[in-house]
Amino acid sequence: MRIGLIGTGTIGGGVVEILETKAAQYREKLGINLELACICAKSDEEVAPYKAKGYKTTTDAMTMIADPTIDVVVELAGGYEMPRKWITTALENKKHIVTANKAMLAKYGHEVFPLAEKNNCHVLFEAAVGGGIPIIRSMQEGFVGSEVEQLSCIINGTCNYILSRMGESGMSFEDALKEAQLNGFAERNPTFDIEGVDSAHKTAILSSLCSGKYVDFEKIHVTGVAKITAEDISNAKELGYKIKLLGIYRRGEDGAVDARVHPCLVPNDHLLASVDGVINAVYLHCDNLGQTLQTGAGAGRLPTASAVVADLVSLARSTDTGSRKPLPMGWFNKENAAKLVPISETSSRYYLRFTTKDSFGVLASITGIFSQNEISIESIIQKDVKDPGKVSIVVISECTKESKMLTALEAIDSLSSVSEKSQMIRFLK
Amino acid sequence: MRIGLIGTGTIGGGVVEILETKAAQYREKLGINLELACICAKSDEEVAPYKAKGYKTTTDAMTMIADPTIDVVVELAGGYEMPRKWITTALENKKHIVTANKAMLAKYGHEVFPLAEKNNCHVLFEAAVGGGIPIIRSMQEGFVGSEVEQLSCIINGTCNYILSRMGESGMSFEDALKEAQLNGFAERNPTFDIEGVDSAHKTAILSSLCSGKYVDFEKIHVTGVAKITAEDISNAKELGYKIKLLGIYRRGEDGAVDARVHPCLVPNDHLLASVDGVINAVYLHCDNLGQTLQTGAGAGRLPTASAVVADLVSLARSTDTGSRKPLPMGWFNKENAAKLVPISETSSRYYLRFTTKDSFGVLASITGIFSQNEISIESIIQKDVKDPGKVSIVVISECTKESKMLTALEAIDSLSSVSEKSQMIRFLK
């Protein structure tokens, strides 16, 4: 199998490294031949080290893609538009695809997968979600005897690192972010991660796999982690919870899909609560299988490259010896779009934190508003007053419909004695 | 794909149930046709309910296996000799195999897999290890870009339930076993589970997958859980550990294999420590991938049946549309046997508990023997004396070669002031 590789960054470099050490073993043990036929990057500088090692290199991806001797294109460049063009052209040229590009798949999967099906080509993307965790393969093959009812996942290492560090040390969000950047766990511009966009891409892909329907990542509810304060983390800890940014899928009624990304209070005895640092985890509740959890490195050079190589091996085993038919990706076809449950229609228990100017009359006003909106309160915690002009009141609600809660919060936020916008974090059940 | 099913017990019944609900979906979504062509069980009584539903049934497995219209034999009967005969005959008749029979695979895999290779047939066994956890598929495909350096697994739900309950409640081994039996988590004759034989079967299979070599389950060291006392559990808890029965694989030097099954003290902050009850878990440390953990239901009707059905779907996707070549199972070929590291050559930290008649002179004797054997002691805990004739002394050793430790323990056990055989439990790390 002749491979054309696009991208020589962190993951691309890792793929070359693994193939150099393992290709002989695959040939000997599995009888498959993974040949790195051409390496493509943006500039001569980037391809130079590979050229020096004797690889055929190019800076012109489209010419490589047109080469009839290339069997599979490995796209590890990142971004949306160029990868879309490369991949669709490669598929039209009957080449298989291996990619780690969750952003492109979440945005253009509805174009890529039908085209792949039409051309009887495979598109493998184990590395796109959860790095080294073989979750795509598990969902497409291992769990096929069961239906996913609920999925909750920690799939952004940057956010999980920040929240874990805040929990361990009591530091602020800003300080934890700085530390993450210093340690190479956050980008210099971390918006994409901390706003939850990366998690939304991955959650959309996983929700599509769960439901068998197209889930548009732009339509799922996303709240990032930037507004989580040290106080929220510490309050959660006192209650026996950790705050985690979760990607969530729930099977709704009549095949509807409840997919979303937001911080959650996870009880300490839940398996996801002990997943700390840059580790990723996918927790599933399935009808026949029951509960399963897979954890592992969510990012990083060799874990992700190793997932790409596993896809290449799968592909070679499928195509060298006849043709294992690609999986039909009806779930990524726009015509098969999921009916999404609006976040306003979902229900949760809520952690609410109000910042008020004094602590006397305001409590009566707040509880009055909850009562008017028929929201039951499980507990109220008034924290020690350090700054008399800035009193924190924490309220835990019973399970409430989100639309009701939002109405109540709007009323509370407009009280003159409430000095900051209220904080609202959902409980994971 | 026409399926012949042998065994209508818990798992077999579950497979029929899942196929009844999902076969139409597989046909529609994956374009594969899973047809339950014949159901075989030991007696007319056992097949009667299936006959009544309109299935073709038989009590004669060999005739079913000879039927040229059957494409795959699903063996869910259990035991060693009959399954061996059915499976080898089926392979000679060019039929694929799906089985959950770890005992037979551990014992006769070296016969079954070469025969399968010769006949270009698949033998799939996802359900044999870890029930609903897709660990076999992950190791054969998902982790192929990486090499396993260490594996530690909890793969016997009965033992893990007993040890978990002892830890939660302080109850004795005997009481926890009784409770497990009452709840259906232990067999009436639980020897096979509590002596670690079931774990050894599974550990041998996983170690073979890790090393690519044949690991003979009869040659790996096995210690069960029957000698773990409430006192050991409570001492471990005080030290910040849980006691778990682990299956262990370590990559040794020069390709040697260190495979074993024994109780271990697992630190509370290790992911395996929070795997309680009948849940199974496989923890891997790989060169490229780093650490991963997979947990899930290790047994039970639908989780295990769901793994069998996943194998059937894989098989149908591989064989309906050409021929995806079966994985070469060189790792299960006797000629490719692993050099096993003898347990005496391994090193651990050890938890040791001595029962002595008095607490005065004996401590000096014990520490003297350790000193003579050049064993360093990390800490000594002398428990409150309740019965003056039966004093417990707990010693934690530093990392020590097992052969040295055994020599010391033999000398200690022969002291006249030591009244019971000493307890020795290894630390994980």
UniProtKB/TrEMBL annotation, chains A, B:
InterPro entries: ACT-like_dom_sf (IPR045865), ACT_dom (IPR002912), Asp/hSer_DH_NAD-bd (IPR005106), HDH (IPR016204), HDH_cat (IPR001342), HDH_CS (IPR019811), NAD(P)-bd_dom_sf (IPR036291). Its EC number is 1.1.1.3. It catalyses: L-homoserine + NADP(+) = L-aspartate 4-semialdehyde + NADPH + H(+). Residues 351-426 form the ACT domain. GO terms for biological process: methionine biosynthetic process; threonine biosynthetic process. It is an enzyme of class 1 (oxidoreductase). GO terms for molecular function: homoserine dehydrogenase activity; NADP binding. NADPH binds at residue 102. NADP(+) binds at residues 6-13. Transmembrane segments: none annotated. Belongs to the homoserine dehydrogenase family. This is Homoserine dehydrogenase. It comes from Hallerella succinigenes. The lineage of its organism: Bacteria, Pseudomonadati, Fibrobacterota, Fibrobacteria, Fibrobacterales.
